[in-house]
Amino acid sequence: MKKIRVAVLCGGKSAEHEVSINSARNIIAALDPKKYDVTLIGIDKQGRWHLGNSVKLLGSHEVHHISGTEGLALMPGKSSELFLDAAQKQWLQPIDVVFPVLHGPHGEDGTVQGLLKLANIPFVGTGVLGSAVCMDKDVMKRLLREAGLPIPKFLVYNRRDVAKINFENVSAQLGLPCFIKPANLGSSVGISKVRNQQEFAAAVDAAFLYDNKIIIEE
User: Fold this and answer.
1) What is the mean pLDDT of residues 45-64?
2) Per residue in 192-218, pLDDT tens?
3) Other CB atoms closer than 10 Å to residue 176's CB: what's the count?
4) What are φ and ψ of residue 74, in 5° steps?
5) What is the largest CA-CA distance in the chain?
6) Which segment of 77-81, 110-114, 116-120 scores lowest on mean pLDDT?
7) pTM given for the model
8) Phi-psi region of 70 (alpha: psi -120 to 50; beta: other; left: phi over 0)
9) Which domains does the chain have, with CATH numbers?
10) Beta pairing partners, 81
């Protein structure tokens, strides 16, 4: 039986870079080598794509980030010539499907899904719209509320609204404790539980380190 050629895409520019690598390690370990031929493609924190080594990734938990000097280029147009290895100056074997294992912005938010659709490359997981909606907690909560589903009370603030974020106002509307988090991130990065006024300002600052929009919810 012909093996399915799977490109596992991991790393990325977001604060969840390391989480993505751990997820890729688990997925590659779970893929049956009798059925799947795996190619590892890593995106470094600057957004450059690299041909990775899945054997090295599986064999060492010391691999925490993607790096390299030679890049990998995506060249849409021909199904047999999609990825060009700049180091070897040759095309990779044709890929049947991409398995995006990117976490957070520039990965889970529909951007990579849109790129793969434009390149006519089949991929695993949710499409562009579903990815974009579910990544943005503000948009997701509004749609859930519109559909009549019960959700916690929440407030949304953009970076330009920092001067308007007031502990007394927030605690009066949501009560305590409350949770402050980036609107577009996962893996509990940037999330704080606020029990009092002393913790409030630090939690707001921590969330804004990762996003220009934050969510405060009961």
Assistant:
1) 72
2) 999 999 999 999 999 999 999 999 999
3) 15
4) -95, 125
5) 65
6) 77-81
7) 0.88
8) beta
9) 4-133 (3.40.50.20), 136-217 (3.30.1490.20)
10) 78
pLDDT tens-digit readout, 133-158: 999 999 999 999 999 999 999 999 99
Do 94 and 80 meet the contact criterion of CB atoms below 8 Å apart? yes
